[in-house]
Please model this.
Amino acid sequence: MALDDIYKEVILDHYKNPRNKRDMPDADRSAEQHNPLCGDEITVFVHEDGGTVRDVTFLGQGCSISQSSASMMTEAVAGKTREEVGELVGGFRGMMAGETEPDEDAFGELVALKGVVKYPVRVKCAVLSWDTLQEALGGQAEGAST
Amino acid sequence: MALTEQRSAGLDVARVRRDFPILERTVEGKPLVYLDSAATSQKPNQVIDAEADFYRQHNANAHRGIYLLAEETTELYEQARTTLARFVGAPDPGTIVFTRGTTESTNLVAYAWGRKFLSEGDEILLSEMEHHSNIVPWQLAARDTGAVLRYLPLTDDGLLDLTDLGSLLTEKTKLLAITGMSNSLGTLPPVRELADAAHAVGALLLVDGAQLVPHVPVDVTELDCDFLTISGHKMLGPTASGGMYARRELLESMDPFLGGGHMIEEVFPDHSTWNAVPYKFEAGTMNIAQEVALAAAVDYLEGLGMDAVRAHEEEITAYAIERLQDAGARVFGPADVSVRGGAVSFWYHDVHPHDLATILNEEGVAVRAGHHCNQLVMRRFGVPATTRASFYVYNSNDEVDALVDALGKAEGMFG
Model:
């Protein structure tokens, strides 16, 4: 195992310079979750427009994996329909469970998080923001159980 | 890492290490540097052999069969009780109840004493540095009985703030339940002083001994505590070994905890009568092999001498605090090692503890990252989590150096 597998340049970049990390006072939807294991907290805000997710922002604190995953997620889902977002969330979960190979075209930078699969305890960190987004959108969140 | 023939205050660490086979293994190609003994300690050959020998030579159920193996098993099990009693200074082995550890012991008291003797408006006094296992059982007991929980606050140094002790510990207080050593801050509260204060208002004192008993010489008579919970796996024993001490008259007056075989005297269709103390609290087949091996752990610690264990840990803790602070870490808890033990939590250059722990693992260094079942402490000090290095008889200053070196790599990556 090498640290490069998990702390890829793109992850550190999103951690140090998170995208869309801001409040959204006029959000259509929002949800808040925390990972009781490590105290990480995240709130995800969604601006929706006729079934299309226009804009997603987040606030919170956490490790580099949870923060970079949230940052990349906000970029990956903006402009997608609810259905497309649902597919992406499912694909991301499958990748983090080590069950499915990511569609590199659809996933883009998110593929960088694949290395986290080798660190089972850290998978929850990566999935937390995605669970929170799904909860905000009214879907069934699998939750960050410990 | 070159392990020097380090001899700290009374402990020959290099020699101690030879008794712990796991310390020979590598992690990620590097020597294991195990700094998580506050979570669970490693086990010496003497303990591993004691458990294996029990199964190879003696195994039967205790207190039941009329044949040689059963008699041997019963004798070993009761010898373990005598050994544990001696270790904590309890003159009467019958005041030691075997349990799976401190969590079960605290729950036992919260049910068997709390449900019987607490009532509406009674108060239970805890502190903000309690492990969740010394909070949640009392929350459940309070919910069932109408009792109220109150908390002793902490100073910025991580000591108990006793300024308002007089208004928090009153005639309404039925129990003061306090840790003997904080698992995140390392703090050693003044247990005897608290015992006297509790008894002065008619309250009982429960000491959570999870971190205290493995690391500091303990004498329940000197501490004058009413309950002391004991974790076996944190003091070189197997997981699910341990127990509790309680004053005999309390054990006599308490209800049973779990019902089942061996805890009864006679069973009738509509009621039962209870076995004598301590068997009233030991329902079903117990962790016989584990308690027998725990006795071997006690023998091992007594062989080292608990004064020497404590002196060694003061020395390594002082060294660790100094090195961590020099490296720019914020260390939580008291700086004075005479009032703290070797659980050292810190925050390092804004690198999240989970990231730190992952990077340290690559260097073979095992630490704990998280809230350590101390969410009240995390809130008190305004951090979501900390990284914790904790030390025991087999840790050396060289390993502190390995920790600090590994931290430097993390800073290089995230700084």
